[in-house]
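Hello,

Following up on my earlier ticket. Below are the three sequence lines again, exactly as submitted.
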Amino acid sequence: MSPDRIFNLGFDLATTISILALVSLGLAVIFGMRGVINLAHGEFIMLGAFATLSGTRNGLNIWLAMATAAAVVGLFGIVVERLIIRRLYGRLADTMLATWGLSLIMVQMVENRYGSVTEGIPVPVGNFTVGEFSMSKYSLVLMASAVLGVLATYTIMRRTRYGLLARAATQSSTMAEGLGVNTSVVNMWTFGLGSALAGAAGALLAPVVGVIPTMGQTFIARAFMAVIVGGPSFVLGTVSASGLLGFIENIGTNWFTPVIGQAMLLMAAIVVLRFLPQGITGTRFRR
Amino acid sequence: MRDQREMTRDLLSRVAAGSGATPAAGSVRSDLGGAVLAFTAVAVLGNWVQEFTAFEWSLWAVQAILALSLTLVWGYGGIFSLGQAAIYGIGGYTYGFWAINLADNTGESLTAVLAAVAVGAAFSALLGYFMFYGNITDVYVAIVTLATSLVLFAFMNSTSGSAYRIGDAAFGGYNGMTRIPRITWRLPGGESHELTRTQFLLFCVAAGLLIAVGIRVLARRPFGRIAVALQHNELRTGLLGYDVRWHKLAVFTIGGAIAAFAGALFAAWGRFMSPTVFSLAPAALVVIWVLVGGRNSVAGAFVGVLVVKGFSSWFGGASGDNEPIVLGVILILIVLALPGGIVTNIFKLKHWALNLISPSRDRLDAEVELATQQAAVYRPEPVVSQTEPRSDINLSTPESAIPTLKSAQPRARLIATAGLTKRFGGLAAVDAVTLEFPRGVSCLIGPNGAGKSTLLDLLSGRQNPTAGTVTLDSQDLTNRKPFLRARSGVGTKLQVASVYESLTVRENLWLACYAMPRDTQQADQRVEGLLDWLDLCEEAEQAAGTLSHGKKQWLEIGMVVATDPSIMLLDEPTAGMTRTETQRTAALVRQLGENASVVVVEHDMDFVRQLDAPITVLHMGSMFTQGTFDELANNDRVIDIYLGSHHGNSVSDASSADAGGSSDADA
Amino acid sequence: MAFIRRRVRPTWKALAVATIATALLAAGCGDDEDDDPAPAATSQQETTPAEPDSSSGTDTDSTDNMSSDDPDEAAEPAEPDMSDEPDEPEDSPEPEPAPAEPVNSEPIRVGSLLDETGPLNIYGTPMADATRLAIESINANGGVLGRQLELVALDSKSDQNEYIAGADQLVAEDLAVVHAGITSASREAIRPIFGEAELLYFYNVLYEGGVCDRNTFVTGVVPTQQLQVLIPWAVENYGPRLYVLAADYNYGQISADWVREYAAEAGGEVVGEDFFPLDVAEFGTTISEVQSADPDVVVSVLVGGAHMSFYSQYAASGAEIPVVSTSFGLGSEQVALDAASSEGIVVAYPYFEELDNSTNAAFTAAWQAEYGDNYPYITDLAVYVWEGWHLWADAVNSAGTLDREAVIAELETGTVSFDSPKGTVTMDGPSHHLVQPVSLARANDSNGFDVFETFENIPPSFEQQSCDLVANPDTNEQFTP
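Thanks for your patience. The regenerated structure is below:
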């Protein structure tokens, strides 16, 4: 295999993993910190994409539009948390039902507002060539964003006051409240952070996917696999699970066919859970 | 502390909010009566409406059967499966393959239904074996079942080629399998009859109602009670000697058979199967039906389907494009205002009214309450006067016999360890411990982190050792599962009382009594004796979670005793008890020691003194020394190791410091 | 039972509640029944008024003019229509409509079943709009056999089960014809139902081809029609090495087979082939593989929202191998993608809104008058529907009766043709598929297409060769290559 092909393969792999990490991170924060399975996660991503679209149409610079989109989705998440989710913590199935309902509403609302198809946005950067292969510079943006997103989340959780309180609330919300932490507010910010990350993922993907109201469903199943396979330590878990699953899918697609690649991803998720029932990072917890 | 009534109410509201089913009440006769009533109603209506309406209703009936499979698997078995729709799909395709190939020859398609049920059951047994014997639990089960569906979805979509066919039946890929025969029956030698639409509706409704009654019957049988028990407390169920994995597998397989049956009816209904059934939406829709209706009751399955379908049809028609919005809003409102589903709330109208006023407050309180309760185990608790037991209780009178099995002989046996080691990373929590626990009471003490609880876990089987062996008489127990150890006579009481919080005291004891002889009648009788012995007659119908800490500990000890163990492992039996309660417990433990080997891990040195038993001191994972209480109390080295981690002047001071602090570090 | 003393209220009460709910529901239906011979039951039903209302009068006029503007082709079927009108009363002791109707001023009831809500309404909405417009235009033009059409339209809500239930309901409605179905799965689910009920069925969608069923007529284009135009052009203009990317289901797989066949015929070869599950949205690896194989042209048969991402990612990667497609535009890809991603892709379809002819001009004008100027894009699906209705109306008028056998016989003569906005289309008798023009177009930088070449009378070659319903009327299957 020629060196340019090898570089090209690695580049594709990194792109796949970055996209998987981007779309999973927000879900992982919400699931990891609050045990909420947000079935509307895909629609939060979709909302991020549409918010970016609106931003650019209204003359915003694309990067600015993306940042705004993340913030808007984060705010939206906070509203959703206050109105619905905060009443449902600890009720896994009920949150799934409520967020499923939310996803139905969001898809239809966006469709009513934008129509079932609307014009997409162009990729803001060009491409480069290595040997025979030409590749998108935007993939570099995605990779950088994924790394940045993971680092930022890690820093927020480890180095800020909010992160400390949020982790405390996760470990024992009673204890945290006993220590005078307003866990309700902390939970609100946690959900907001997760939503903002989903929004950012949608914003970043907007130029390279078809922006349509039903786009969320494309990502949701895979994001779940990544989060669950990742396990309880969600930052590390998301990175490792995205890496593993992305690698397996890429290999399958490359050596065999995309169908087999996808089947291999799902099978890998099943097998990992069979042998590590709590996910990759679950082994360090005893129970 | 809030009073008992309020706590009970909170706990009930928690149960209502969907913490799972409790065993069904009522009798088969009343169930059948209801079923006949419902069937008659549908029969009358079905003959009255237009055929195509009956046709649409039969789809609802089929979907209700699918929902019932999830009610069983999830509501009663606690297995959150997203794969029911996939098994339904497998059932449908199997019916298709079988009926297309054979119906022309045999003149009937009922065997195809049976084939579908068999294949569905086999598939879910296989998947269930993979999951439950691999210890996959909770939401992970949901993900594995969903992933399985999606693999099937991708596969079935790619089967358009002519190579994919079984006999005359082509898979058809995305386009699906067509011209599947309707339900047809034929008496041997007679003519074959195809069910008309109205007949098909009645067939589906009758089948659905019978399955519903069957599930309720099952739930009342020991099998169902155990299934319900394990969803409330899997750990305790295993420690009582029930094979949790097997029960889950059985429930999942039966659920799979029901789902596949529904699938077969579906294929016969539409005469068509396509891979859509394996996609994400149907998987979630089944969950929605069950949640909307209420997963704790079989009626919930029917109500859920009717309500969701009804709303889609009516509101959908009126709102046009906005149907998804209407549906979404309804879902959210049901979750917020009617937690636990419609049926549960019809039963608890009063509670529902309360919830409307403050939707989340109640539950939150209940949870906080529970959490506080659990946290409170670690600290000495003020005497709760109103629950103070009468002084003349049986527990304190040594002559009252322990209500063991009449048949069983007292059989003290010897549990021993040899070179037992457990490492967590570089840390040896238990380090080459060789010990024997003979008949009678033995105490294990040691400072925090000495490895006491880990050692007990190794004995009970909750953890497997890194090296060394555990033997019971001559049997090697080292890597046996907890439930197998329980069956060979090892009873375990955990550090934090582990009982079925949402079930009543009586139900708790019944489950323990049934565990060993597996005899319903005997269990029913022995429960009464145990209630009496534990002095819990008054609280018998109360949810165990509402008991005071002392009583909860007793209940757990009672449950361990009920399994008639020859070895009893008691981890801090007096935690959270008042002084009087502690004294009574000491008498009880001594009494138990007469017939069994009792290993007690304890911090409370007063209690240890009262037991008057040989003591083993553990330190840093290995055996430090052994002796009587008085010997050890005067042993400077023992006092030193306690002083090494605590600042007290005597062993008993150190113990009170221990009791106050968290003992989690033992792990 | 000793076990439980705390009784939960027995569940049969809940069943009773369910029963009451059922009763209420039934009562709802019952009411309908009392005053309406054809109950709407629980599905959405809308009825297009028999006479055009005043507000849309002008629009329908224009459609009217449109048809009569082109006497050369349209006149044939249209004229009998007019002349039939007075004959009508004697002419129709129709066997089809059930109760004996005294005079034939009664409207003819016709059915439609499409996904107007849910994810598939991308396709369903324009088709439903076209259905209403077609019925209005036919009614304004004098109706069929002098009678007005009354539309019974059900919404299948992008749900397979709704198709089956809806088809069953339509069968009970006493209709003359049904135009229904979007996805191939939905067609396969309902086709047998209409076949058994002997209710004439039109399927007006582009699809994978091969359906051979006496009761079914197809106006949609099939892969052989698109590919026999597109592939030779691609080989000639770009080069002989083709790389095929297709959706991993019947349509994609069958199309890929035909690409291979037509490529060989045109002296080219397929150097690579990849199939994608419908929810794949990440194409990085594939794009690399394409670059690695270095073909002269990429043939895309990717379908659906997720696959749309391919075009963005392909453009972003800077790969310069040209793309041709038989599916780009089906989901309005040229609108949803930014211009950079779609510009230059060459497609082959029978209809483009941009087609420059007078029929199309009248058609788009009528459409915009009805549905507004900023209607996203009139899809080719909408035009198949338009043709389906008109072909059926013309056939009935020529046959002079609603009798199914007579109408099928008329359609099988191979002479029923219609002046469609895309040019003349003719129903091919033996195959029940449409001979129609196919145009090549290139996506431009303003979310539209530039048509650069039109090929008239392209036959559905595979269907013609595999299916002869005139000779073998009992055939009923879907042939695959």
